[in-house]
Amino acid sequence: MPTEVEERQEEDYLTCSLSTTDKATMAQPSMEDKTTMTSSVYNSPEKCRLRKQLLYQKEKYDKKIRGLQQTVRRRDKQVVTLKCILDTLRKKGILEAEQSEMLLNLGGSNELFKRLCKKQKNERVPRQYNPQLRVFALTLHYYSPRAYEYVRRHFNLCLPHTKTISSWYKTINGNTGISTEALESIKNRVQNTNYTLCGSTSFPHPITKEKVVTFFDPCHMLKLVRNTFGDSKILLDVNNNFVQWSHITELHDIQESEGMHLGNKLRNAHINYSKQKMKVRLATQIFSKSVADALSFCKNDMQLEQFHSCEATIQFLSIFNDLFDILNSRNMHQLGFKKALNSSNLALIK
């Protein structure tokens, strides 16, 4: 039988177990209580203070970013003077001082700034370029394409594109020879340069101190003359007489039709040389004394009608025959102009 003390201990144990179970049940919150507890954690005074500081910093840096972006836009759109840009190009070595000064005096800067202002205001920019601006663009591009691209980029593409300039160049005088504009530019450049210009055709030998005369490769030069003569068909000599390629072709046709050659090596390859331009013999055998003599025979002895005006052609061939022999000479035992230049034939060559 349990004693009275044991019964009391058992009652206390049961009471303690029930109270513990009730406390555990009461300690588990519902979903609504959990939401309330979470929001209360994020809305604590410390969290609110930190949130306000973050919002303030974000707004502060957003304003700073907008200010920097505006500064960049203003910097890109600022109107710089043409003189400032040309000075920058001169310091970079892209333009020379004389070229920079000449560009400033051309007077196209006003038109350039007008186009720039219209472009910045989103106004319609005329497609036609002012004559002064065209002269400025052509001159700047002629001096330095790199400088032209630099100025065009800094002035918001207000200068014409390089393809437009190329189309303008197509309208200049297309006559034969070097353009007068290029010669005038070279003349001005030479007058304003500080370099020592060598206008001599010879220089002293470093040891013997004798004059060393330089000249171009005669074989290559003769091929160039042949190409010019054959492609142009007609040349003018110093007396404005016609030097005609047709005299060469007519001589070849007569020799082929008659089946004999008048002491020369003229063949079809000499006439149709386009696929064999590098062969020197095809050029030297045209500019030869034998071809000149054959033309003279057809004109004077046979008195053929097609050769009645070939005197200038005969003289042209003879001159280049002798000139090639003089420049291509190397043997002292040859005769005439083929003999190497020396004191005995110097007077003859002169």
From TrEMBL:
InterPro entries: THAP9-like_HTH, TNP-like_GBD
Boundaries of every THAP9-like helix-turn-helix domain copy: 89-168
Domain Transposable element P transposase-like GTP-binding insertion as annotated: residue spans: 219-339
Record PANTHER family: THAP DOMAIN CONTAINING 9 (PTHR47577:SF2), THAP DOMAIN-CONTAINING PROTEIN 6 (PTHR47577)
Name by which UniProt lists this protein: THAP domain-containing protein
Natural source organism: Temnothorax longispinosus
